[in-house]
Write a structure and sequence with these properties.
With 165 residues, this protein is of the alpha/beta class. It contains 5 helices and 4 strands. It is 44% helix and 15% strand. 32% of the residues are buried.
Length: 165
Protein backbone atom coordinates (compact mmCIF):
# COMPACT_ATOMS: atom_id res chain seq x y z
CA UNK A 1 0.00 0.00 0.00
CA UNK A 2 1.38 3.41 -0.98
CA UNK A 3 2.02 5.85 1.82
CA UNK A 4 0.07 9.08 1.63
CA UNK A 5 0.80 12.67 2.45
CA UNK A 6 -0.20 14.00 5.86
CA UNK A 7 -1.95 17.37 5.68
CA UNK A 8 -3.24 18.47 9.08
CA UNK A 9 -5.46 21.55 8.78
CA UNK A 10 -6.06 23.48 12.00
CA UNK A 11 -8.39 26.41 12.53
CA UNK A 12 -7.38 29.05 15.06
CA UNK A 13 -9.83 29.69 17.88
CA UNK A 14 -12.88 31.52 16.58
CA UNK A 15 -12.11 30.73 12.93
CA UNK A 16 -14.95 28.91 11.19
CA UNK A 17 -13.85 26.55 8.42
CA UNK A 18 -16.04 24.40 6.21
CA UNK A 19 -15.29 20.79 5.34
CA UNK A 20 -15.34 21.91 1.70
CA UNK A 21 -12.51 24.39 2.34
CA UNK A 22 -10.42 21.77 4.14
CA UNK A 23 -10.95 19.34 1.25
CA UNK A 24 -9.93 22.04 -1.26
CA UNK A 25 -6.78 22.84 0.72
CA UNK A 26 -5.75 19.18 0.77
CA UNK A 27 -6.52 18.76 -2.94
CA UNK A 28 -4.49 21.88 -3.81
CA UNK A 29 -1.52 20.60 -1.80
CA UNK A 30 -1.66 17.13 -3.35
CA UNK A 31 -1.99 18.65 -6.83
CA UNK A 32 0.99 20.97 -6.26
CA UNK A 33 3.09 18.05 -5.00
CA UNK A 34 2.18 15.93 -8.03
CA UNK A 35 2.81 18.77 -10.51
CA UNK A 36 6.19 19.44 -8.91
CA UNK A 37 7.22 15.78 -9.13
CA UNK A 38 7.34 15.07 -5.41
CA UNK A 39 7.55 11.29 -5.14
CA UNK A 40 7.95 10.84 -1.39
CA UNK A 41 5.20 11.03 1.24
CA UNK A 42 5.26 14.47 2.85
CA UNK A 43 3.74 16.39 5.71
CA UNK A 44 2.45 19.94 5.37
CA UNK A 45 0.80 21.67 8.33
CA UNK A 46 -1.82 24.32 7.60
CA UNK A 47 -3.18 26.93 10.02
CA UNK A 48 -6.28 28.89 9.08
CA UNK A 49 -6.72 32.14 10.97
CA UNK A 50 -7.95 35.71 10.66
CA UNK A 51 -6.08 38.97 10.04
CA UNK A 52 -5.29 39.46 13.72
CA UNK A 53 -3.87 35.94 13.99
CA UNK A 54 -1.70 36.16 10.90
CA UNK A 55 -0.58 39.66 11.95
CA UNK A 56 0.67 38.19 15.23
CA UNK A 57 2.51 35.36 13.44
CA UNK A 58 4.01 37.81 10.95
CA UNK A 59 5.26 40.02 13.79
CA UNK A 60 6.59 37.13 15.90
CA UNK A 61 8.27 35.18 13.09
CA UNK A 62 9.31 37.87 10.60
CA UNK A 63 9.28 41.12 12.55
CA UNK A 64 6.66 42.54 10.15
CA UNK A 65 3.98 44.50 12.00
CA UNK A 66 1.13 43.93 9.53
CA UNK A 67 -1.35 41.27 8.47
CA UNK A 68 -0.79 39.40 5.21
CA UNK A 69 -2.64 36.77 3.19
CA UNK A 70 -0.34 33.76 3.55
CA UNK A 71 2.89 32.88 5.33
CA UNK A 72 5.15 29.95 4.46
CA UNK A 73 7.73 28.39 6.72
CA UNK A 74 9.82 25.80 4.83
CA UNK A 75 11.42 23.00 6.82
CA UNK A 76 14.23 22.62 4.24
CA UNK A 77 15.82 24.73 1.53
CA UNK A 78 14.97 23.13 -1.79
CA UNK A 79 15.95 24.35 -5.24
CA UNK A 80 12.95 25.29 -7.42
CA UNK A 81 12.12 22.39 -9.72
CA UNK A 82 14.23 19.98 -7.65
CA UNK A 83 11.82 18.63 -5.03
CA UNK A 84 12.58 15.85 -2.58
CA UNK A 85 12.57 12.53 -4.44
CA UNK A 86 14.14 10.27 -1.85
CA UNK A 87 13.48 9.82 1.82
CA UNK A 88 16.74 11.35 3.10
CA UNK A 89 14.83 14.24 4.73
CA UNK A 90 12.09 11.99 6.15
CA UNK A 91 11.29 11.99 9.83
CA UNK A 92 12.43 8.55 11.07
CA UNK A 93 9.37 8.30 13.35
CA UNK A 94 6.76 8.93 10.65
CA UNK A 95 8.54 8.21 7.37
CA UNK A 96 7.18 11.53 6.09
CA UNK A 97 9.27 14.38 4.72
CA UNK A 98 8.18 17.53 6.58
CA UNK A 99 7.95 20.29 4.00
CA UNK A 100 6.93 22.98 6.47
CA UNK A 101 4.02 25.06 7.64
CA UNK A 102 1.66 27.58 6.11
CA UNK A 103 -0.72 30.06 7.71
CA UNK A 104 -3.60 31.60 5.76
CA UNK A 105 -5.86 34.50 6.73
CA UNK A 106 -9.41 33.62 5.74
CA UNK A 107 -10.27 37.32 6.06
CA UNK A 108 -7.72 38.08 3.31
CA UNK A 109 -9.19 35.25 1.22
CA UNK A 110 -12.61 36.94 1.32
CA UNK A 111 -11.28 40.45 0.65
CA UNK A 112 -8.92 39.43 -2.16
CA UNK A 113 -11.52 37.23 -3.88
CA UNK A 114 -13.84 40.23 -4.06
CA UNK A 115 -10.99 42.55 -5.09
CA UNK A 116 -9.84 40.26 -7.93
CA UNK A 117 -13.37 39.31 -8.97
CA UNK A 118 -13.16 35.57 -8.51
CA UNK A 119 -14.47 32.97 -6.07
CA UNK A 120 -13.23 32.44 -2.54
CA UNK A 121 -12.40 28.87 -3.54
CA UNK A 122 -10.08 30.09 -6.27
CA UNK A 123 -8.39 32.57 -3.93
CA UNK A 124 -7.94 29.98 -1.18
CA UNK A 125 -6.52 27.42 -3.61
CA UNK A 126 -4.20 30.04 -5.12
CA UNK A 127 -2.79 30.98 -1.71
CA UNK A 128 -2.25 27.30 -0.87
CA UNK A 129 -0.47 26.68 -4.19
CA UNK A 130 1.60 29.84 -3.73
CA UNK A 131 2.64 28.70 -0.26
CA UNK A 132 3.42 25.17 -1.47
CA UNK A 133 5.79 26.55 -4.07
CA UNK A 134 7.57 28.52 -1.34
CA UNK A 135 7.88 25.31 0.70
CA UNK A 136 9.44 23.69 -2.39
CA UNK A 137 12.06 26.43 -2.86
CA UNK A 138 10.40 28.92 -5.21
CA UNK A 139 10.55 32.63 -4.46
CA UNK A 140 9.48 35.93 -6.00
CA UNK A 141 11.63 38.49 -4.22
CA UNK A 142 12.98 39.78 -7.50
CA UNK A 143 10.79 41.06 -10.30
CA UNK A 144 12.67 38.95 -12.82
CA UNK A 145 13.13 35.32 -13.69
CA UNK A 146 12.35 33.85 -10.26
CA UNK A 147 8.99 35.60 -10.13
CA UNK A 148 8.14 34.57 -13.71
CA UNK A 149 9.09 30.97 -12.96
CA UNK A 150 6.94 30.88 -9.82
CA UNK A 151 3.96 32.51 -11.54
CA UNK A 152 4.16 30.01 -14.42
CA UNK A 153 4.15 27.07 -11.97
CA UNK A 154 1.18 28.61 -10.11
CA UNK A 155 -0.78 28.90 -13.35
CA UNK A 156 0.01 25.30 -14.32
CA UNK A 157 -1.11 23.94 -10.96
CA UNK A 158 -4.24 26.11 -10.87
CA UNK A 159 -5.13 24.79 -14.34
CA UNK A 160 -4.85 21.24 -12.99
CA UNK A 161 -7.31 22.28 -10.30
CA UNK A 162 -9.59 23.80 -12.97
CA UNK A 163 -9.41 27.14 -11.14
CA UNK A 164 -7.88 29.39 -13.76
CA UNK A 165 -8.46 33.12 -14.03
Amino acid sequence: MARRHSIPVTAAAGTAVSDRSVALIRKAIRTALACEGVTVPCEVDVLLTDDAGIHEINLDMRGVDAPTDVLSFPAFSYVPGQPPTDESDADPMTGLTPLGDMAISLERVRVQAAEYGHSRSRELAYLVVHSMLHLLGYDHLDEGEQKRQMRAREETIMAQLALTR
